[in-house]
Amino acid sequence: MDISFVILVEMLYAIASLVLISAGLAVVFGMMKVINLAHGEFMMMGGYATITAVGLGVNVFIAMLIVAPLVVGLIGLVVERLVIRHLYGRLVDTMLATWGLSLVFIGLATMIFGNTTTGISTPIPGFTVGAYQINGYNFFIIVMAVVLVIALYAVLKGTRAGLIARGTMQRSDMAAALGYSPDRIYMATFFFGSALSGLAGAILAPLVGLVPTSGGAYIAKAFITVIAGGPSLIAGLVSSATSFGLVNQIFTFAVSPVIGEVALLIAAVILLRAMPQGITSRFFKGKL
Amino acid sequence: MSLKRREFLGAGAALTTAALLPSAAFAADTIKLGSILDTSGIFDAYGKPMDQATRLAIAEINANGGLLGREVEIIDYDTQSDMALYSQYAQKLTRQDRVDVVHGGILSASREAIRQTMRKTDTLYFYNVQYEGGVCDRNIFVTGVTPTQQVEVLVPYAMKKSGPKVYILAADYNYGQITARWIQKFVEDNGGEVVATDFFPLDVSDFGSTITKIQQVSPDLVVAPLVGGAHLSFFRQWAAAGMNTKIPLASTTMGVGNEHKVLTSAEGDGIMVAYNYSQELDTPENKAFKEKWKAAYGDTNGIHELAVSTYQGIMLWAEGVKKAGTVDRDPVIEALETGVSIVGPAGNIAIDPQTHHATLDVHIMEVEDQKMKVVETLNQVAPVDTQAVCNLQENPDDNTQYEIEI
Question: What is the interface pTM, i.e. ipTM, of the complex?
Fold first, then answer.
């Protein structure tokens, strides 16, 4: 009995971490069609922002949930103004530019923080379920992912800003005709997407040893999740994270963690072969 | 005026001699020691202290009157963590600078990049790093520990403290694979059983499901030869799940890059490791070494096992030169093969004539408050893994890196 509970928690955790890793990219790539290859580095910077803030005496939760998203959001803002805004609509060019950016960020982080592993310990203690120990921080990650998805939905669906953003992404000329500045809206959306990446990096920071090249570990999973999700932002994110998280954990528990990773990638290949436009091109059609 | 070649050379030689005269305490020509290390780039955390150790050792030798009455001069190249530069600088050291000995190389890849150049040019080569074992070449001396030297000592100790059921978590490349096999062998030799072995690519940083699996199997002991920054997450997640107080943990790699200083004491305490060196070793040699290091570089933070191995490697070479009475390659090798030994900061270290590896002291340590507390010392552990495949006494022309069958 205990073991099924523990496995359930691990599965939810795997899904939740995929959601967190991919949320920022879903906004930047899914909504804005900017192939942000520096997404992993945005997460890495979120981690460093958290560790630095904690080192300066800031409460760890404030550092994770407020400082890191703000810092990375601002970095995203600068990047958008200097580079990305010239490249909207040029998919391949954004890829090259953001790849260059990712190298720059890795270089800068190496210069500032050095090429050594740093980290902070998890702020939530582990606890016991029957004969098993569970990492208490897993629950925090699950809760954060749920809150994030609900908040994303509420903002995009329920607020005027969300409506304007969605409208601009679909037809920026129409939005302009109605008196909204697409330039401003793109800027704000990129800020928001970067902040989400920073938040994800911050929340995952206590679980890993952070090095300037840490971003590379996330980038592939984030892209697979977002692309397999398809056209709907939130439904796509949740459905593909759920599929991949389940496949990964089932094979991890049945065979080994390496096979779990392999299974995730094979599942992605099969899924994209069967549904080239992503899960939400067939299911949950028209959902947000 | 036309200058004949012979006259020019004569004049040149006179000038050179004149230039060297101020250091008249030493004989005219210096002994050249080539050093080839990554002192910048991603491996600089290893390379910089090794370079500092090289300078410290040479300064010490020169302060004591040099070798054979001659001053030792360092010719060093920074390979910038770039494997291509190793072969380039190795050519330069051997063919242009014509050094008498080369110390250096960090990763196994860098060693293999320069080993053949050293062999072809008859330049004696010292590799002073912990590695996977198996190199068999009369021209090379290896002063770092090999997997068995750690595992043979660590496994019985850890099993005695915990129990016979062992779970292995290893890095998925040659070092991890080979080490995991040795762990399995020594667990079985000590009457235990390996209940499972999991390998992890170097970029895996999520160990949640693994930790659950470990609990399902509930072993008495976990042995973890995990490598690099991503794998450091394991120790953190293990502690976050509260497992560090339930199942004892041992590792052959935790601490080489001073990882125990990155983990908090709550996360790291109690992890068992086995190394040739710890800063906490309470011997007069180590204290003196730390004093000298501090005087030269300000503090002792940088000292790690690889730096100490480098220092000891140079001292062993110096001992060989003294014994041979020359820096020529063959007499020095023969002198070293008599089993030359020194007492270094890490204890007694002797050359094993059969393999050109080192027989050395291994210290079992437990992490305590971000330090390595020495619990037990095993004197003079031989490199039995390499001995199993390599015999340079019988087969001096051997030039292979063996993959050791277990």
Answer: 0.77
Q: What is the mean pLDDT of residues A162-177?
A: 92
The interaxial angle of helices B44-63 and B284-297, nearest 10 deg, is 100
Q: Which residues of B touch A206 (CB under 8 A)?
A: 236, 240
**Beta carbons of A207 and B242 less than 8 Å apart:** no
Interface test with A, best of B236, B246, B265 (most A CBs within 10 A): B236
Distance separating alpha carbons of residues B5 and B14, to the nearest angstrom: 14
User: B275 vs chain A: nearest CA distance in angstroms?
Assistant: 21
Is residue B376 less than 8 Å (CB to CB) from chain A? Answer: no
CB contact under 8 A, B205 and A14: no
Residues B24, B20: Cα–Cα separation, whole Å = 7
Joined tokens for residue A287: 């959902």
CB contact under 8 A, A207 and B246: no
Query: b vs e for B198-215, b when ≥16 Cβ sit within 10 Å of the residue's Cβ?
Result: bbbebebbbbbbbbbbbb
pLDDT of residue B1: 44
The residue ranking higher by pLDDT, A243 or B29, is: A243
Mutate which: A44, A251, A256, A264, vs B, most B CBs within 10 A:
A256
- Closest by alpha carbon to A283, among A242, A248, A249? A242
Query: Which residue, chain included where needed, has tokens 């050095």?
Result: A114
Please write the tens of the pLDDT for every residue from B222-252.
999 988 777 888 998 899 888 999 999 999 9
Q: pLDDT by residue (tens digit) across A93-117?
A: 999 999 999 999 999 998 898 777 7
Alpha-carbon span B273 to B139, nearest angstrom:
31
Contact: A217, B267; criterion CB under 8 Å:
no
Q: Does the beta-carbon distance from B262 to A117 stay under 8 Å?
A: yes
CATH class for the domain made up of B148-275: alpha beta
Domain of residue A29, residue span: 2-218
**Annotation: CATH topology of B26-145+281-360+384-401:** Rossmann fold (3.40.50)
Q: Judge: B199–A133 Cβ closer than 8 Å, yes or no.
A: no
Domain limits, CATH 3.40.50.2300, in chain B: 26-145+281-360+384-401, 148-275
User: A50 pLDDT band (50/70/90 cuts)?
Assistant: very high
Write the pLDDT tens digit of every residue in B65-116.
999 999 999 999 999 888 899 999 999 999 999 999 999 999 888 999 999 9
Nearest residue, CB atoms, B216 vs list A3, A134, A252: A3
